[in-house]
Each structure stands twice: as structure tokens, then as C-alpha cells.
Design a protein that fits this description.
263 residues; alpha/beta; 11 helices; 11% strand; 6 strands; 2 domains; Glutaredoxin; six-stranded mixed sheet
Length: 263
């Protein structure tokens, strides 16, 4: 049951490198310090989105050790969050897959979703904000595999943190796992087999959980900083965990032991 619950959570969000911006003239507007909420109709939901967004911004930036400039995501640089009236309108206006509940656009710094409560404030919103902050931090030039991007975004979802280990244990005990090297090379956006996609997402957050829980946030922040500065994944790993993890094979072995043997 908890496996199904986990999979239901991840199948809500997409992320994109380029989407058309939507004109704001016809939208109601609610401005916060780091976000501008554009909405149609439900002002109370928009206020909740604004309040939660600011809270997540501070939490995620702190978790990632993100150096924030005085005007970062402020004034005319604020992230725009569009809340469409219904899922039908969201799908019609954005052309998303019919299972999608929202997406983040890296280039335009926008998040699109619709006025719904279940899962939005606790899952999709922190997930998409994390995508934007993480990519602002590490950029696009370094060797940042997709699993790392998705793993970090999921790690900031409170519900997934609670159940990831149990879900990954069930996969590993049935020998469902990607070799780490294959995980690093996999572009899940080109995969159509649902189970393969599910495994990718679960394993991605599980590896992040291992690194952060076993070795702490400071080393993980260093790891991300090395990637930002152009180091390859393996070089960044060796630099950040010099006495603990010498290569991807050792990462895979330690991660599996952690998942299977830790209560």
C-alpha cells in the first residue's frame, strides 16, 4: 500500500527547460517576497500557495547550502506560479500529459498547476521549487545526471521522506534495481514503460536519502558545489567523500547495504 502511495505522489509533476510564458493580464495577482502567484478565482488557495512557497524557499535554500544574493528571486526576478482554474483548463492551456498536475519551467522560472488541494502544497509545490533552486545553484554546464535532479526535488517532499526507505527495500528485495552507472546515463523522459519510470524515481530519492542521512548535509552540499564548478560526477564524489566513497561502484554497494540493513 505504501508503495502505491509513493508512486501516486511522484506521478504528478513534470519539469521542462522551455515553455511559453502565459500572459498575466487576465490573471489575479498576489505578490510575495520571492514569488508572484497568478490565480483565477480561489484567493484563499492562492494565499496558501504564497505562504507555503516562501516557507519552502527558505527550507530548500538552507538544505542545499544555497548562497542567496540580496536580490535573488526578488522584485522583477520573482518566480511566477500560475494556478489554473481546473485541471481541464491547465491541460488545455499547457498541452501537458493527461496525468500531469503541474510542471516547472527552468528558463522562464515559472510553475504551472491548478487549484487543487490533495498533494499540491505538500508534494508538487516543494518539488518544483526545488527543481528551480537546484538548477540555479548547479547550472546546466556541469555533469548533473537526471536522477540527481529528480532525487533532490523528491527529497524536499515531506511525504516521500517518510516512506522512501520502505518502498526501496521492497524493490531491492525483489532485485529490482538500476546499476548506478546505468542510472547516471538514463534519460527517463525517453522511457515509456511505467514500471521502469517508477523504479527510476524511487531509486533516485533513495540514493539522495543515503548520502544525506549517512554522511550529512555538509558533504552533500560540497558534492553539489563541485558539480556546479564543473567537476564530473565521479570526481565530485571522490572530492566530497574522500575517505568514504571512492567511486560509483562503492556508492552502489554502500547504498544497497544501507537500504537493506538499516531499520
Amino acid at each position: 500500500m505504501r508503495v502505491l502511495r509513493f508512486l501516486a505522489i511522484w506521478m504528478m509533476a513534470e519539469f521542462l527547460f522551455l515553455q511559453p510564458s502565459f500572459p498575466a493580464e487576465s490573471w489575479l495577482e498576489l505578490k510575495g517576497e520571492h514569488f508572484i502567484i497568478y490565480y483565477l478565482g480561489d484567493e484563499e488557495f492562492a494565499k496558501d500557495v504564497s505562504r507555503y512557497s516562501e516557507r519552502y524557499y527558505r527550507q530548500i535554500a538552507d538544505d542545499l547550502g544555497y548562497t542567496r544574493h540580496s536580490d535573488f528571486w526578488q522584485w522583477d526576478k520573482r518566480v511566477k506560479i500560475y494556478i489554473h482554474a481546473t485541471q481541464e483548463e491547465f491541460l488545455k492551456e499547457t498541452g501537458r500529459n493527461n496525468w500531469s498536475h503541474g510542471f516547472a519551467d527552468y528558463i522562464a522560472k515559472e510553475i504551472h498547476s491548478y487549484a487543487w488541494n490533495e498533494g499540491f502544497l505538500q508534494s508538487l509545490l516543494p518539488h518544483e521549487i526545488t527543481h528551480l533552486i537546484f538548477r540555479d545553484y548547479v547550472g546546466f554546464k556541469g555533469e548533473v545526471p537526471l536522477w540527481l535532479d529528480e532525487g533532490v526535488a523528491q527529497w524536499e517532499e515531506p511525504e516521500k521522506r517518510k516512506i522512501v526507505k520502505e518502498v526501496m527495500q521492497s524493490y531491492l528485495m525483489n532485485d529490482y534495481v538500476y546499476p548506478i552507472q546505468h542510472l547516471c546515463e538514463l534519460d527517463i523522459r525517453n522511457v515509456t514503460v511505467e514500471f521502469a519510470v517508477q523504479l527510476f524515481y524511487v531509486q533516485s530519492i533513495s540514493v539522495i536519502e543515503f548520502l544525506v542521512t549517512r554522511y550529512g548535509t555538509d558533504k552533500f552540499i560540497t558534492f553539489c558545489r563541485e558539480l556546479r564548478d564543473g567537476k564530473s560526477l565521479e570526481v565530485a564524489l571522490k572530492f566530497s567523500y574522500p575517505t568514504q566513497i571512492k567511486d560509483l561502484s562503492e556508492l552502489e554497494e554502500q547504498w544497497k547495504n544501507y537500504v537493506l540493513k538499516t531499520p
